[in-house]
Amino acid sequence: MTLSTEAIDATEAKNSAGSATRTRSTLHSAAMRMILGLTMMIAVSTSVGCFLPIYSARPERRVQQLLYTSENLRAVVDEWERFWQLDAPSHLTPIRTHGGVL
């Protein structure tokens, strides 16, 4: 009984083509898993406030934290006006004068 080398070569060619197809499909599924994982991480990271509360559960502490937060937000507005020099008094007079000797 002799084996034909053509049958062995054809089987190896078929296996190598199948492994290339399998490799391509595994790469495709790995890429899809990576994209899905990144999408899930972005979705979870945008809703962190729902999972991790930023204020205390104790009412007294929570009121204190809310007061601090509102004071900080009020200070931001003051800083913004100071940066753009909106808090300085205006040197312009509401009534325009001639400016020269009358």
UniProtKB/TrEMBL annotation:
Region feature (Disordered): 1-23
Species in which this protein is naturally found: Aporhodopirellula rubra
Keyword terms: Membrane, Transmembrane, Transmembrane helix
Residues spanning the membrane: 34-55
Upper lineage: Bacteria, Pseudomonadati, Planctomycetota, Planctomycetia, Pirellulales
UniProt key word Membrane: yes
Listed name of the protein: Uncharacterized protein
Polar residues: compositionally biased ranges: 13-23
Recorded superkingdom: Bacteria
